[in-house]
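ARCHIVE CARD
Drawer: 12
Card no.: 0347
Subject: one protein chain, sequence and derived structure
Cross-reference: see card 0346
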Amino acid sequence: MISQLIFVLFLIAALIQCGYALYFFARIISRAQTPNSQFPIPNSPKPVTIIICAKNEAQNLKRNLPLILAQRYTNEAGKPLYEVIVVNDASDDDTAAVLQQLEQQYDHLWDVVISPNEERMFKGKKFALSKGLQRASNEYILLTDADCAPSSPDWLSAMVAPLLHGKQISIGYGGYRKAPGLLNAFTRWETLHTFLQYSAYALAGKPYMAVGRNLACTKSILQRAQRSDIWNKLPTGDDDILVSTMATRDNTALVTDRNAFTYTDAKTSWLYWIEQKKRHLSAGKYYKPGVKALLGVYAMSHAILWLSFIGLLFTTFLKIVLVLMAARCLVYWAVWMISAALIKEESLWFTFPFFDFAWMLYNFAFSPYIIWKNKKQWT
């Protein structure tokens, strides 16, 4: 009797998983075939402001900022048609000295300094972002982090192209550099899986999140997001809250051009990675109810599928369960392979069986930070 109940739960979970994949995740297949052609760069581009919020980021700025300042986005005279604003948020390392040196080399670089005792109208990073936005002189804004490097000199032009075609939010991909070790592999797989989720939802007309490492928007819509009731609920999560509150089917675009990616180094310590994930996941409780319900059904069906599968391995249902599980995994791993190829993470293919199961443990471990309030600060 118990095994029959578990089998029914397994069937329901398998059906939900396959239906979810076919409705949402399969949309990435068509995008993988034509990732670069949706938004060509107009002949007359408009000026852009890149905003980077930095707190004790001297080494990262020294390494990555020259790549951002060398983007191929110029006017007819060949001069940069963009400005870069770095908000130095009360840093006590060499951030100020690095910025001062770079400002002597680049006329389109500006810094905004926040003193340690300055009164803050927003929590954490959001205050630094607001200061950068006040200084921005252009309507089109591109956001990234100090520890991120663009994948090409055409990153800026590819990311803002949808804005130049009338969109208000442009969602990009922020990846992690490959390095040895299990933590690095799981970080890159989890980033792939998250990309698949938010990109598939965006393609389905239900955008709900983005990564602040690579996000473009209009200045006016970011200002509107700052006036929303939930903007100051958390010290971080500006990217997710912007998309969750302001993005629609018509005003949002997904950018999958390989020239438009950003890359950063993944955490090398499990403890640091756990702290990072706590911050990243805390904005999930503020997603729209419909999106939260869909994401919850997906995660719950995934957990039930694996738990019931294990529970049925030593029952009379073994053969049919193995066939159904193989069919489900074939669907998912095929979609993951296509997604991995799209974002140049082909080396992750052999990890799919292990991390598919590990994602269930991941959800159990981090569910408190998704459901309840997180008071972590931006550092």
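Annotation on reverse: The chain has a mean pLDDT of 91. Residues 37-272 form a domain with the Spore Coat Polysaccharide Biosynthesis Protein SpsA; Chain A fold (CATH 3.90.550.10).
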